[in-house]
Specification:
197 residues; alpha+beta; five-stranded mixed β-sheet; two-stranded antiparallel ribbon; 5 helices; elongated; ribosome biogenesis; rRNA binding
Length: 197
């Protein structure tokens, strides 16, 4: 196999300076496994370079992959795709196991994110239930207070239980105690006009 028959690779300088472990991983992938290479003597292989794969690192430690094509003799690049974002979780010494070379401390799995959302909604539910229980307890306490027969100290001081002594006071007390009667409204017949004969 010929290594990278029709490709050029563009790696961000941040790889080698800030993230040497990721840089080593990508270099190993390209060097050892020839992931993006064209097999030697492939019928569609070209004797020139016309594609550029760009790998760049964002501040949140995600790797952006972009595929460019060299369009003409002026060596201008045109993005042809695909474009995708990689998030490094762990890099192992072997294919799927072995010593951990790199571990992303900021990575949070989707299950952990969903669990956090559920726990937050569970907290709201528990808070609602506590409010309901507090309202029930408060209503019971109010009923108990109303049901208690407490002596009225105001009545003892002002002697309200005694009937008024004067006739004028009795008349005023009778007016206050008397229930108001609703007046009945009498419906009048509507005028429908002169009767036709």
């Amino acid at each position: 196999m010929s290594f990278l028959n029709f490709l050029l690779f563009s790696l961000s300088s941040r790889f080698s300076i800030e993230f040497p472990s990721i840089f080593l991983c990508i270099a190993t992938v390209f060097d050892k496994f020839q992931t993006f290479s064209t097999p030697n003597h492939h019928p569609r292989s070209q004797p020139f370079f016309d594609h550029v794969f760009s790998f760049s690192v964002t501040p949140d430690l995600k790797i952006w992959f972009r595929n460019f094509q060299i369009v003409d003799e002026t060596l201008q690049l045109q993005e042809i795709g695909p474009r995708f974002v990689l998030e490094t979780i762990r890099i192992f010494a072997g294919s799927f196991d072995g010593a951990v070379l790199y571990d992303n401390p900021d990575y949070e799995s989707p299950n952990a994110k969903r669990r956090a959302i559920k726990l937050a909604s569970k907290g709201k539910y528990i808070e609602k239930e506590l409010h309901k229980k507090a309202a029930i307890v408060k209503a019971q306490q109010i009923k108990e207070v109303i049901a208690e027969k407490v002596e009225d100290p105001v009545g003892e001081i002002f002697e309200v239980k005694e009937k008024p002594s004067t006739e004028e006071a009795q008349r005023i007390a009778a007016i206050i105690d008397k229930k108001k009667k609703k007046k009945k409204l009498v419906k009048k017949a509507k005028y429908t006009g002169p009767e036709s004969v």
